[in-house]
Amino acid sequence: MSKQAFGVKDRFLLWLVSFLGPLLLLALGRTWRTTWRGNEKLREIRGRGGKVLYASWHKNILPLAYFYRKQGIHIMISEHRDGEFIARVAKRLGYHPVRGSSTHGGSRALFEMSQVGNKGFDAAITPDGPKGPKREVQPGTVVIASRANLPVVPVSACAKPCWKLRSWDEFLIPKPFSKVVILVAKPLHLPPKFEEAQIEPLSQRVKESLNENETEAKNLF
């Protein structure tokens, strides 16, 4: 959405959110006591200079946005009005927003995301975003991973104590000084070419890995 589409009030809110949002997240994140697990599973890929497509359920956006900041990771963000606010914050945190979703600007966004690995960057996606259904992998995840030839790396975040919003995804906000566990799963290597009939089983494979990783992360507590 272009800046011209916003009124004076909205433009002020955009400025306020893009300025205060990153500051608040950085202040909160620095109080968390963090445990990382599974990063060694990326060693082989990183050793040969490879890039990955991080995948996580939409509810984990906040803690993962803090921990993976300033790495130039390309992330797909909706072109809707709310997406503009998220994109501004993401850019301040060192991400590269790619605007589009399954309903608006999808083809263009899929193409740009599929070129990320060639440009020397990682990519990240929330397979059930931006509006659900919860914990259901949209076809775009499989398409991007295949076209970009990037392994899918499921990542989970769990925290205690935390707030869980009454939103469709049960959005996770770790409380100040809480314990946070970030668990990285084994990379999934999807075929570079497949028939349309294979999209559903491949999406199911990604879904199962994400859910297994989520359960394991919770068990670490």
Report the total helices.
Answer: 7
In the CATH hierarchy, the architecture is: 3-Layer(aba) Sandwich
Could you state the order of secondary-structure elements as H and E? HEHEHEHEHEHEEH
For the biggest sheet, the summary is: 7 strands, mixed
CATH class: Alpha Beta
Number of strands: 7
Class by alpha and beta content: alpha/beta
Mean pLDDT: 90
The radius of gyration computed from the alpha-carbon positions, rounded to a whole number of angstroms, is 17 Å
Order of strands across the widest beta sheet?
Answer: 1-7-6-2-5-3-4
Query: Distance between the terminal alpha carbons, to the nearest Å?
Result: 41 Å
Q: What is the count of structural domains?
A: 1
Helix content: 25-40%
Strand content: 15-25%
Can you tell me the CATH topology? Glycerol-3-phosphate (1)-acyltransferase
Unreliable stretches covering 5 or more consecutive residues = none
Could you explain the architecture of this structure?
The structure is a single chain. Helices cover 39% and strands 20% of the residues. Helix 4 (81-92) links the parallel strand 3 and strand 4 (96-99). 36% of the residues are buried. It has a single domain (3-219), classed as Glycerol-3-phosphate (1)-acyltransferase. The protein has 221 residues and is an alpha/beta fold. The protein has helices spanning 8-29, 43-47, 61-67, 81-92, 106-114, 139-148, 199-219, and strands at 33-37, 53-55, 74-77, 96-99, 123-125, 152-164, 172-184.
